[in-house]
Amino acid sequence: IGIINTWSDMNTCHSHFKQRVEEIKRGVYEAGGFPIELPAMSLGEIMVKPSTMLYRNFLAMEAEELIRCHPVDGVVLMGGCDKTTPALLMASFTMDLPAIYMPAGPMLRGYYAGETLGSGTDVLRYWADRRAGLIDQKTFENVIGGLSRSAGTCMVMGTAATMMSLAETLGMALPGSSSIPAVDSGHALMATATGRRIVDMVWEDLRPSLIITEASFDNATIIDMALGGSTNAMIHLIAVAGRAGIKLDLDRFDTISRKTPVLGNIKPSGKYLMEDFYYAGGLPAVIKRLLDKGILHKDVLTVNGKTIGENNLKSLCWNDDVIRTFENPLTKDGGIKVLKGNIAPNGAILKPSAASPKLMQ
Ligand code: FES
Questions:
Q1: What is residue 298's three-state secondary structure?
Q2: Least confident of 60-69, 78-87, 258-267, 346-355
Q3: Strand, coil or helix: what is 154?
């Protein structure tokens, strides 16, 4: 079993991967397999310049070649920080060897001076204050310390949390895995369970081509809308689907968006953070709400050999403010709007739930 590990000292989002890979290996051994760790480019969003986007396809190619050139029968894909997830999925779809994705999980909530802070917007707000001389360097450093206080990805519903959720929705990760905070003990258990499962997937010859269908991409798009997920997900989903020979376009996203309310009350669209989302029931609770309304395709297969419907039959929600109901959504229609016009003849994407009113004209 190859374990593609996107760990590096420069990627704080994956700083727990040194430990997690050992837990995955333990699971592989438990199931009777033999684990081989294969390091791959890490793509830490914070340090890689000019943009990790430049290297998404590069990582996809590297992962493909790692799978191709080594004598492995199945692979565990360790990713989470923004571009790593789509890159690893792209590689696994192209190679079509039994593959399972292990999401890095989000970091814990940010705190500073009694205020809960989220990655991204809140950093930029304090950075603007620092540049304007409204706060001193020491205060700014305290803010940063409070914001990034554990291993794991950004803890808002940014690209990382969105893509981890979509990988699970596509059926490529164990049910419930993508919402577990990186440093929660449940994350370590999930890593071991992932290692155990890939061995069985090899015996069952359960390949991505048996899991991935047009319906699974519709599901991923619906979940992206319901979470108020990242607009970058559109870019990545199109690329990932392309590797499976499935064509997605902006009109399809638009149609789905118009039918799907935003239920995830998570920054930057809403109020809470990924840790709150996990305590509220996480992705399984959202999937259950959409299944109950008949919006998701329930019969698509996932890595555990069961359908998404079977996996989430009994999922519960513990907080209706974090994961809203259909009767009380964050916004009535979806997370994105597709715009067309003379500035962007081929289309552009706007995330209305995170946009200021002046952008709506
Ligand atoms: Fe890694 Fe945001 S910097 S997920």
A1: coil
A2: 346-355
A3: coil
- Cα of 202 vs centre of ligand 1, distance in Å, is 31
Residue 10 vs residues 18, 38, 184, 327: alpha-carbon distances, Å: 13, 18, 22, 44
Three-class DSSP labels, 205-238: CCCHHHHCCHHHHHHHHHHHHHHCCCCHHHHHHH
Task: State phi, psi for 8 to the nearest 5 degrees.
Answer: -160, 160
List all residues whose CB is within 6 A of at least one atom of ligand 1: 13, 45-46, 81-82, 119, 153-154, 160
Give CA–CA dist 199/35, Å, rounded. 10
Q: What share of the chain is helix, strand, coil (3-state, %, to 5)?
A: 45, 10, 40
Residue 341: count of CB within 10 angstroms of its CB: 8
Which residue shows structure tokens 């009994």? 314
140 and 126 in contact (C-beta within 8 Å)? yes
Beta-carbon contacts of residue 52 (< 8 Å; ≥ 6 apart): 43, 44, 45, 81, 82, 83
- DSSP lists the bridge partners of residue 37 as 3
How does pLDDT run across 214-245, given as a tens digit for each residue?
999 999 999 999 999 988 999 999 999 999 99
Specify whether the CB–CB gap between 103 and 177 falls below 8 A: yes
- Chain-centre distance for alpha carbon 29: 27
- The one-letter amino acid code at 295 reads I
Grouping H, G, I as helix, E, B as strand and the rest as coil, residue 79 is: strand
Residue 149 burial (C-beta neighbours within 10 Å; 0-12, 13-18, 19+): middle
The values of phi and psi at residue 246, to 5°, are -110, 130
User: How far does residue 152's CA lie from ligand 1's centre (Å)?
Assistant: 8
Q: What pairing do the DSSP bridges indicate for beta strands 348-350 and 2-5? A: unpaired
- The DSSP-derived string for 23-77 is HHHHHHHHTT---EEEE-----TTT-SS-GGGGHHHHHHHHHHHHHHS--S-EEE
Amino acid found at 142: N
How much is the pTM? 0.96
The residue whose two tokens read 């259950």 is 288
Site to substitute for ligand 1 among 55, 147, 153, most atoms within 8 A of C-beta: 153
Q: What is the pLDDT of residue 59?
A: 98
